[in-house]
Amino acid sequence: MTPPEAGRRFAAGANAWMLIFVACVLFLYVCLIGKAIIIPFVVAFFLWYLINALTRFFSIFRVWRGRPAPRPLRLLAAIILLTALIAVVSGLVRGNIEQVVHEAPKFQASFERIIGDAALRAGLHHQPSFAEIVQSAKEHVDIGRLIRSFSAMLTGLASKTAVILVFIMMLLYEQQFFARKIRRMLRTRATTARLHRVLKIVDVKIQRYVGVKAFVSALDSFLTFLLLSMFRVDFAIFWGIMAFFLHFIPYAGSFVAISMPVIITLIQFGDLGTTLMVFAALCTSHAFLGHILDPYLMGNNLNLSPIFIISNLAMWAMIWGVPGMFLAIPILALASITLSQFKTTRPLAVLISKTGELEKKPKRAAA
Amino acid sequence: MVNKKTPASAQATKHEKKQLASAAVGASGGAVAMAPAVASSFALAFMVVCLVVYLLHIAAAIMIPFVIALCLWYLINAMARGLSRVQFAGLRLPRFLCFLLAILGLAAGLWFILNLINHNVRLVREAIPVYQANLELVLPKFLDFFKLEREALVTELKQYINLTTMMATIAATFTGLAGKTLVVMFYTGFLLYEQRFFERKIENMFSDPETQGRVRTIIKNIDTSIQRYIWVKVVVSAATGLLTFFALKYFNVNFNQFWGLMAFVLNFIPYIGSLLAIAMPSVIALVQFNDISMFLSVALTLSVIQITLGSIIDPRLLGDSLNISPIMIIFSLAAWGMIWGIPGMFLSIPILAMVVITLGQFPATRGIAVLLTKTGNIDHEVPRRA
Question: What is the pLDDT of residues A54-76, one digit of tens each?
Fold first, then answer.
């Protein structure tokens, strides 16, 4: 290779990477400013995916002469089941949120009293510092605001329901043409095969992720509810449901799912012993579910580095807020699988993997 | 070669000449054709740099904890490596224990420093109203001494020297960092956990052995020069801090512990840090003693300490290992101060060193690396591709 040739190749490679970087930044920017349009679509897409997965799942039930029910019937069943589930959960959450918001000021007052007591007990008895602590605690932990922002998120999604429903219906109607579209879009058989392979891997991995997470989260939610009602903590049902959702947010989710009920316990009973007991019980259940059962079931399914998971979580939280936190892991998994399919981008997939090993080398693209 | 040229060979040489000429034309034609490609490369590189700076700025809240975690992780590793070299009766400490000791040592050191700062900040904060009152008393005296116009200057100076907001900013920086502690701990823990996979990642990321070798060289060079930088800076800063402390104690200036510590910390910020480490205790001395000669002698002593250590000893010890142009240092300091505030100022030199080393490794970007150096030499020459 002659020097100018090498230089040209280097420049071409560098240019491609720089353009990719610019495109990525612009993509993130579009995600940020187009939040109001994109999030309902993403939620619709996710629900559509769930409906399809459930429809497929129902085919294991042999209803008539050892044959599964016809597809339209299964689809209908999936939609009804999902709608019922959403209605029940959102009804429960809404009822509880109203109650919590209603009682939030009372809790806050009692919270301030406890903080004050703690400050006095810790020997910080000179007045200015005491007032400061209460002030700064109030700034950092405004429980009322926290809960209100969460409920605002839920109501915000609810008000978008119409848009989401329209999107889902369109996706369900149009999915019959998807295969033909892909075939005619890509022309060559090799590219089509590759796309199908990527979609299949994504499908398998995301389904496994959602399935395992849903199972572990349900267990977690039930255990949280059981433990809290055993200790007679208020709003046990609410915290149980919250635990279900928070389990889908890596690291930060468990942190919130443990700390909030513990704070509520402290406020409700004002007793350090009970609080510590609740704390220990919740920690044990989370440690077992999140660090033993979850990795055991999940295995090396997604193979993502924790560092990238956390930073990605922070990034999507910044871009899309709470919905972004739920979607951070699926998005990263999608990116990792897609990047690993092409020779040029494979190093990036290695970088975000946990162990630095990808499953199998892709065959050379038959150019 | 045969000396006697047969017609055929003559023809051949002619042909060769022709080929050479056409090659030359091709090369120049290639250069012309290359021009738009090079221009587009530079345009793209400029866009990328702008976007990177913008991203660093808007995502500072996410990135600073990660960068701090990276620094801590690096320090823990360096300390653990140091501990693993210690031999005791022919026995070495096991790797696990080295890491544990390093983590505990670092945590204890940070805890001690933060506690000291916290304690002193509270004391200083309590003393500020007294100082401010004193300052207003001293200011006229000061002006008489230098025969300056009074009214205009007093109002102007008062705008600049607002001790309360100054201290509040510093205190807020530290509390802000403390609030991020949990996140930083998370990142540090995961970096320590994942570092066993880094080697394999490099292997799998770069299949071509030449690129792999280059990446390893970059990492090794960065490691060597950053380690050297940190050691020299820690030693020189500790000396500066101690000398400042003793000098202030000798002059009986209040909070000499605090200012000694601040001199240690500020010494990691080039130029501006030294300036602050001289100016602030001197102003405090002025306010405390209400005496101009005291102010001048404190300022003079501190200046002598800073200049001796910062401009004579420090460059000697660092040698050419950093080799960055002072203009670029100041520029990068200002830029990072704008992008990331105070943490950015501490990180500006290490980041610049990394950039210079990395750019120096690729033929296409060597020019930029040369521009950033002080003497124009890049010590780690890249073997040219054949």
Answer: 888 888 777 777 777 788 888 88
Distance from CA of A203 to the nearest CA of B (A): 25
CA A34 to CA B361: how far, in whole Å?
A: 40
| A246-278 burial code (b ≥16 CB/10 A, e <16) | bbbbbebbbeebbebbbbbbbbbeeeeebbeeb
- B363 CB neighbours in chain A (<8 A) are 7, 10
Predicted complex ipTM exceeds 0.85? no
Cα separation, B185 vs B344, whole angstroms: 20
- Chain A residues whose CB is inside 8 A of the B204 CB are 347, 350, 356-358
**B259 contacts B266 by C-beta, under 8 angstroms:** no
* Contacts B187 to A, Cβ<8 Å: 307, 310
Which residues does A57 contact at the CB level (< 8 Å), separation at least 6? none
Q: What values do phi and psi take at B206, rounded to 5?
A: -115, 100
Task: Confirm if B286 and B164 have CB atoms less than 8 A apart.
Answer: no
Asked if B176 and A140 count as a contact pair (C-beta separation under 8 A), the reply is no
Which region among A78-92, A130-144, B67-81, B234-248 has the lowest average model confidence (pLDDT)?
A130-144
pLDDT tens sequence across B121-161: 777 777 777 777 776 776 666 666 666 555 666 666 566 55
pTM of the model: 0.74
Rounded to the nearest angstrom, the gap between the alpha carbon of residue B236 and the centroid of all alpha carbons in its chain is 15
Q: Which residue is listed with tokens 């605002």?
A: A152
DSSP letter for each residue of A282-311: HHHHHHHIIIIIHHHHHTTSS-B-HHHHHH
B377 φ, ψ (degrees, to nearest 5): -100, 140
List, for residues B77-88, the tens digit of each pLDDT value: 888 888 888 777
